[in-house]
Amino acid sequence: MTDLTYNFAGKTALVTGAAGGIGRATALAYASSGANVIVTDIQTEGGEETTHAIKTAGGEAIFVRSDVTSPDDVDALIDTCMSAYGRIDFACNNAAVELEDTALADVKDETARRVMDINFMGVFLCMKREISAMLGQGGGSIVNVASMNALRSRADSAVYDGTKAAVLAMTRSAALGYTARNIRINAVCPGVTDTPMLALKMSMVGAERSMIEQVANLEKRLGRPEELAAAILWLSSDAASLVTGHALPVEGGYLLTGAIPNG
Ligand SMILES: NC(=O)c1ccc[n+]([C@@H]2O[C@H](COP(=O)([O-])OP(=O)(O)OC[C@H]3O[C@@H](n4cnc5c(N)ncnc54)[C@H](O)[C@@H]3O)[C@@H](O)[C@H]2O)c1
Questions:
Q1: pLDDT digit of tens for each residue in the chain (263 aa)?
Q2: 41 lines ligand 1 (CB under 6 A)
Q3: What predicted TM-score, i.e. pTM, was given to this entire model?
Q4: Which whole-number Å values give the CA distances from 174 to 39, 51, 67, 125, 184, in the listed order?
Q5: Which member of 6, 30, 160, 254 is catalytic?
Q6: Ligand 1 mean position to 196 CA, how many Å?
Q7: In a domain, 260, yes or no
Q8: What range does the domain containing 221 cover?
Q9: Residue 162 domain flag
Q10: Residue 108 lies in a domain
């Protein structure tokens, strides 16, 4: 657990998919740096738990139930944020699903469309509205949560991997379009991280946690959601003022696994 905090007093952070996992850890981290936090997710119970945890720790947060695939929901989400806090300084577009457990030819068409809708269109719908709000206030910082799968594929996640690669391409394009107008836009690429999504994937493919730990990264352990939150907060902050359009792997060296160490 990192103790690094920033001075985000008076700032507002919006985190999608904040009912658990990386999104919850990120919402808690923004709040402990003093930001007002809009916690949003399609899951009400988990979202309210995150909000409660922030308030119990002395922070400020509002939960808004919102489906990132619904333009009306995302409009209402941004409206709530603007009427409650008047601005959106930081946005972390984190909501996603991983629904596949087979190679590509066996993926149902409707599963592929659903994954694309949430993981890609959801980020698009949110970014579009976040950028409009940020332009109106003179700037901001966006961090999209992609995946190491955007950089190194797996055989049983073709559509998921494609959506995450598309998020990286959209991140770079948007950074090109808006950095000169004071909006930095970056992405993180988590490695295997200990969250409800990972637990679901392990149960879908019948994988043991101990086996996943062995192949997860060079440290042979699962990443902690707080380790992703630390990277997201740094990218959000002025400490990363010259960083834009990047995809930061936070994966314990997973991308190096399988490389020949010597000779
Ligand atoms: N856990 C990992 O190993 C791992 C690895 C690489 C990338 N990621 C990425 O990290 C991010 C966070 O994932 P996590 O591991 O914390 O998983 P998670 O399942 O705990 O969190 C994802 C959240 O998104 C929400 N969500 C799903 N569909 C939604 C919708 N239509 N509208 C609004 N919210 C919706 C879920 O309710 C959930 O709370 C995701 O983008 C995921 O792809 C995770």
A1: 457 899 999 999 999 999 999 999 999 999 999 999 999 999 999 999 999 999 999 999 999 999 999 999 999 999 999 999 999 999 999 999 999 999 999 999 999 999 999 999 999 999 999 999 999 999 999 999 999 999 999 999 999 999 999 999 999 999 999 999 999 999 999 999 999 999 999 998 899 999 999 999 999 999 999 999 999 999 999 999 999 999 999 999 999 998 888 87
A2: yes
A3: 0.98
A4: 24, 30, 22, 13, 9
A5: 160
A6: 8
A7: no
A8: 12-251
A9: yes
A10: yes
Query: Which amino acid does the sequence have at 142?
Result: I
- Asked whether residue 82 is domain-assigned, the answer is yes
Cβ–ligand 1 contact at 97 (below 6 Å): yes
Domains identified in the chain, total number:
1
Q: Is 162 in the pocket of ligand 1 (CB under 6 A)?
A: no
The CATH number given to whatever domain includes residue 51 is 3.40.50.720
